[in-house]
Design brief:
It comes from Nocardia flavorosea. The chain has helices spanning 4-31, 38-46, 54-61, 65-77, 99-123, 125-148, and strands at 52-53, 81-84, 94-97. The protein is mostly helical. A three-stranded antiparallel sheet has the order 1-3-2.
């Protein structure tokens, strides 16, 4: 029989996988009218406040550098992002959002805001804050364990 820590871990993982699927489906629904996909929105969102190299975006998103590179190239081709020189690394260019990319993000803002308000009302703003903090703590704990190379 599984111990309670193992059961909790399994339930947390399964719930996280389901929530991830729900978030991705919702992101597709919110992003589509703005001419974006969920993946494009994620990459643009990662560089809204400051340009980042592809590897930095991948670390932030928890995905592979190759998948971010493919999306960044598409965003650049479509004029939603641009590559800029990186003073810290000659070959690893920075990805930055363009005015057109910012406009696309702005277009999805009202629907995003409306859903966020509905979610906060459903769960309660204070409880939603606690949930977000707990998810961030759980993510940091997994990073800490993975970073330490522990398997038990």
């Amino acid at each position: 029989m599984e111990n309670s820590a193992q059961q909790l871990f399994s339930t947390a993982a399964i719930t996280s996988f389901r929530l991830n699927g729900q978030f991705l489906a919702l992101a597709e629904k919110l992003a589509e009218p703005a001419g974006l996909t969920a993946a494009w929105w994620q990459v643009l969102g990662a560089v809204l406040h400051e340009p980042l190299p592809v590897a930095g975006i991948a670390r932030t998103m928890g995905v592979t550098r190759q998948s971010v590179q493919r999306i960044a190239d598409l965003l650049v081709t479509r004029g939603l992002a641009e590559y800029r020189p990186n003073p810290a690394h000659r070959r690893a260019k920075l990805v930055a959002v363009t005015a057109e990319g910012q406009a696309a993000i702005d277009r999805l803002g009202p629907r995003h805001s409306e859903f966020a308000a509905r979610l906060a009302k459903q769960v309660g703003a204070e409880r939603l804050t606690e949930i977000v903090q707990a998810l961030a703590e759980l993510s940091a704990a997994v990073d800490g364990i993975e970073g330490a190379g522990e398997s038990d």
